[in-house]
């Protein structure tokens, strides 16, 4: 087994540690027109800094990200041995760090409605579209759609590629999947998520890895992300 992945699911309403962000992140946060979007950005990037800082034994505010080979942000030296990923949907944020192998994390809110089947037919391979359509009601169909979408997004984020060319990559019931752009193998796993959400994580390469979910009670973070007022 090679690699360790830590995943932290954080509510958007958590305490926002803007003091941990760098000037570029603050400018990006200030560019949001809606306060909720600004809050989400600050909480997400603060959570990632806290998680990465703890893993590296480094002050979270000192960390720096730069564009990687495919444009995906990656930690700059001397911290480049740690890989990171962020995702958000609805009222939740997922942050992930991994040692040694590029990581992708994705969280999706389950939104019941008639669109799940149509979107599956349009974007997924036929066997996955059939799996979604076979759900007994809209809730199950939406859950299946979100489950598959989260797995696909996690793989694409680990690859640093584009989502659309890879939506037809089959991920249902598979531990190892093969991305088409850029071409490579990835090991994907589901993550326990709160009700009405689906989440997944993927690492580059087919080798197994250890998955360590983080809970609010087990973080031990000096700064913490307790819920704000």
Give the tags.
single chain, 229 residues, alpha+beta, Ribosomal Protein L22, Chain A, four-stranded mixed sheet, four-stranded antiparallel sheet, 5 helices
Describe the structure.
The chain has one domain: 4'-phosphopantetheinyl transferase domain (Ribosomal Protein L22, Chain A, Alpha-Beta Complex), CATH 3.90.470. It is globular and about 50 Å long. A hairpin with a 5-residue loop joins strand 2 (65-67) and strand 3 (73-75). The chain contains five helices and ten strands; from the N terminus they run βααβββββαααββββ. Helix 1 (23-30) packs antiparallel against helix 2 (35-56), helix 3 (115-123) runs parallel beside helix 5 (138-159) and helix 4 packs antiparallel against helix 5 (138-159). It has 229 residues and is α+β, with helices and mostly antiparallel strands.
């Amino acid at each position: 087994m090679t690699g360790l992945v830590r995943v932290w699911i954080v509510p958007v309403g958590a305490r926002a540690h803007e003091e941990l962000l760098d000037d570029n992140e603050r400018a990006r946060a200030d560019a949001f027109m809606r306060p909720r979007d600004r809050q989400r950005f600050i909480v997400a990037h603060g959570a990632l800094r806290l998680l990465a800082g703890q893993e590296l034994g480094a002050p979270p505010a000192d960390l720096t990200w730069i564009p990687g080979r495919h444009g995906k942000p990656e930690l700059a030296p001397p911290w480049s041995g740690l890989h990171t990923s962020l995702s958000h949907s609805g009222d939740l944020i997922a942050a992930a760090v991994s040692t040694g192998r590029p990581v992708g994390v994705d969280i999706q809110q389950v939104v019941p409605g008639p669109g799940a089947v149509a979107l599956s037919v349009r974007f997924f391979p036929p066997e996955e579209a059939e799996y979604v359509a076979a759900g007994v009601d809209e809730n199950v169909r939406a859950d299946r759609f979100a489950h598959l979408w989260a797995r696909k997004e996690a793989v694409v984020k680990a690859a640093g590629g584009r989502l659309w060319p890879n939506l037809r990559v089959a991920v249902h019931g598979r531990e190892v999947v093969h991305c088409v752009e850029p071409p490579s193998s990835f090991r994907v796993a589901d993550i326990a998520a709160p009700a009405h959400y689906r989440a997944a994580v993927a690492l580059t390469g087919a080798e197994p890895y250890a998955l360590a979910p983080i809970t609010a009670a087990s973080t031990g973070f000096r700064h913490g992300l307790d819920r704000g007022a």
